[in-house]
Amino acid sequence: MTHPLVTAAELDATVTGGGVVRLLDVRWWLDRPDGRPAYREGHLPGAVYVDLDSELARHGEPVEGRHPLPDRGELQAAARRWGLRDGDAVVVYDDLGGQSAARAWWLLRASGVTDVRLLDGGLAAWAEAGLPLERGDSAVVPGDVTLSDTPWPVIDADAAAAWPSTGVLVDGRAAERYRGDVEPVDPRADHVPGAVNLPTSGNLDSTGRFADAAVLRSRFEEAGVTPATPVALYCGSGITATHNALAATIAGFDPVLFAGSWSAWSNDASRPVATGDRPG
């Protein structure tokens, strides 16, 4: 498995050296989910826009959360629309510190794409390096990639409820949402009982790039994670939890995802909640 990150300089050297890399632009924001206008204003040369809401998620019942994982067949069809072929190297990016692009990284990696990496620093790092952008839509030749049908490393709400008794359950939301001070999106505030809080913003350094492996490892270790301790991750709707999954992978851990996340948990009135800054 390749390292999950690539720098702008490394990517540019690969592309200018004749290497074939499929570039996926996964721009998405909670208040502006359609990133296509921004993509058309300027994107990495040859990059294809990926619609997070419709291609990296599906519509489901409220108890499945706001961004249920897509059907594997639908994801494969989308990947072929992006031009992916078997054996391709893939680089994903966004302009949100990797928060949305990590969803594409996680899904493709969990579906058997062995060479998929995230552009560290995203669009800003590319621009800071003085590298060119393109406008409009990129022409795409449909691909023929076949995704693995290996089960995704995920758990459901029942498993999340039991997880803290044998492992570490990590809530990746901002501290004020974890504590229950505010809840701008989901039906209830607070957090899953037993979960510890590791906001995904802490994965990045002051330049907006991922901290190095030793720093990330210490961060997870302070939360109780060890190589022998199973770790499960969630967030608001299963998007930014994959940012913690990427950080945990860099740190040398092997996490699983509570895909429904807080949006699924909070939509089930039978589920208890914990309040405040402690796991509960």
Task: Provide key terms for this protein.
280 residues; alpha/beta; 5-stranded parallel beta sheet
Describe the protein in words.
This protein is of the alpha/beta class and 280 residues long. It has eleven helices and ten strands. It has a five-stranded parallel sheet. The protein has a five-stranded parallel sheet with strand order 6-10-9-7-8. Helix 5 (101-110) crosses helix 10. The chain is globular. It starts with a strand and ends in a 14-residue tail after the last helix. The model has no long low-confidence stretch (mean pLDDT 96).
Q: How does the major sheet shape up?
A: 5 strands, parallel
- State Rg: 18 Å
> Could you say which structural class the secondary elements and strand pairing correspond to?
alpha/beta
Shape: globular
As laid out across the biggest beta sheet, the strand order is: 1-5-4-2-3
Order of helices and strands: EHEHEHHEHEHEHEHEHEHEH
Unreliable spans: none
**Tally of extended strands?**
10
Strand content: 5-15%
First-to-last CA distance: 37 Å
- The tally of helices reads 11
Name the helicity range: 25-40%
Average residue pLDDT: 96
Quick take:
With 280 residues, the chain is α/β, with parallel strands linked by helices. The longest helix has 10 residues, at 72-81. It has helices spanning 8-16, 36-41, 52-55, 72-81, 101-110, 122-128, 157-162, 175-179, 213-222, 241-250, 261-266; strands at residues 5-6, 21-25, 48-49, 89-93, 116-119, 154-155, 168-171, 196-197, 231-234, 256-258.
